[in-house]
Design brief:
Blueprint: H1 18-23, H2 29-37, H3 54-61, H4 64-72, H5 87-93, H6 97-105
């Protein structure tokens, strides 16, 4: 679909953007990389559902490798949105300690 011009940043339905959907469910880092490489990243730091941004979704799901890829692509670890507040809170609430450490290494603020 991307090769045929599908807009990866479109947010047509319940699951938000293709990137948000790829960050949820089973971890698929290659899919996340493919979507990120497909074009504009207007929605990288925008909430696209009740959980929040793609980073919030990956952090709450415990997807370490996906979190690392998103941070490398410019995802803001302090972007607000969603039911957890920020990515650090999303990872913390589910006990994903390695992701908490990774977010802190990338500038996540504890006192936000």
């Amino acid at each position: 679909l991307l090769e045929l011009g599908a807009n990866a940043d479109a947010q047509p339905g319940t699951f938000g953007t293709a990137l948000c959907t790829a960050c949820d469910g089973p971890q698929d880092v290659e899919m996340v990389k493919l979507i990120l490489a497909s074009g504009p990243k207007d929605t990288l730091n925008k909430a696209c559902g009740t959980i929040g941004t793609p980073l919030h979704i990956a952090a709450s799901s415990g997807h370490y490798d996906t979190v690392a890829v998103l941070l490398g692509a410019g995802a803001d670890p302090n972007a607000p949105g969603g039911s957890f507040g920020d990515a650090l809170q999303a990872a913390s609430v589910f006990g994903h300690e390695e992701i908490v450490e990774l977010l802190l290494e990338h500038g996540a603020k504890v006192d936000q």
